[in-house]
Amino acid sequence: MKMIGINSVMFKVTKMQREIQTVRNTVVHCTKCKDLVKSRKQAVPGYGFADAKIFFVGLAPGRLGADSTGIPFTKDSSGKLFQQALSSSGICMEPNGIVQNDSELRAYVTNLVKCNPKNEKGNNRYPSKLEVENCRDFLKEEMGLIDFDVIVPLGRLSTEIILDRKCSSFTSMHNKPIKINDMCCIPFIHPSYIVRGAYPKNKYLEDFKDLVTWVRAAKN
Ligand code: SF4
């Protein structure tokens, strides 16, 4: 963790780190969703900076990625693209994560559901409503602990949960800031959508640069 300099701020950040660690410990031992406990390799808590400015919310750990590594958005194609987007736009992940730089634009990354949902063929599936509900308190705790400037749900379902409403024309919401009370939400297309070729990769990487501009504006 980069030193911020003022003792009271450091104390607050250290306290938050401890509290986030408590949430992480609870997640890794959680057995609330019986099907997911059978299908997951491990539960995958969020990771990143306690004083993150940007709070990303994906869907669930990927079968070929976070389910193996224990870190959201790593190893599989979606994870690699996401990390590339962070890195190329100057967004910083936590020191033990995949990408490091000196940017002030620190991030925290988590998922709606912390365990990998698989279908009967062993492929990724969407989490059920019950699984999302079961895991919702962990997300609420993470959102309560991190004093972010901007929240970025990745994909339609994450956006619907954060905004608490249906988003039928989700792609038109991509990269457009929405104010909810004092929170700035900027929905983003999920990286798996780009990997499938449904949206141009170079445009997606550019969109992260716009996101950085929004985050800097939200701070002021
Ligand atoms: S998805 Fe969430 S609530 Fe369900 S078992 Fe995993 S950590 Fe627990």
- Sketch the major β-sheet: 6 strands, mixed
Task: Write out the distinct hetero groups bound to the structure.
Answer: iron/sulfur cluster
How many domains in all?
Answer: 1
Element order, helices and strands?
HHEEHHEHEHEEHH
Q: Low-confidence spans: pLDDT under 50, at least 5 residues?
A: none
Give the number of DSSP strands.
Answer: 6
Number of helices: 8
Helix content: 40-55%
* CATH homology group: Uracil-DNA glycosylase-like domain
Q: How would you sum up this structure, described in words?
A:
The chain is α/β, with parallel strands linked by helices and 220 residues long. It has a single domain, classed as Uracil-DNA glycosylase-like domain (Uracil-DNA Glycosylase, subunit E, 3-Layer(aba) Sandwich), CATH 3.40.470. The chain has helices spanning 7-28, 34-39, 66-69, 77-89, 129-145, 156-163, 191-195, 201-219, and strands spanning 47-48, 54-58, 107-111, 150-153, 178-180, 183-185. Strands 1-3-2-4-6-5 form a six-stranded mixed sheet. Helix 4 packs across helix 8 (201-219). It is globular, with a radius of gyration of 16 Å. The two termini are 23 Å apart. The mean pLDDT is 91. The protein binds iron/sulfur cluster.
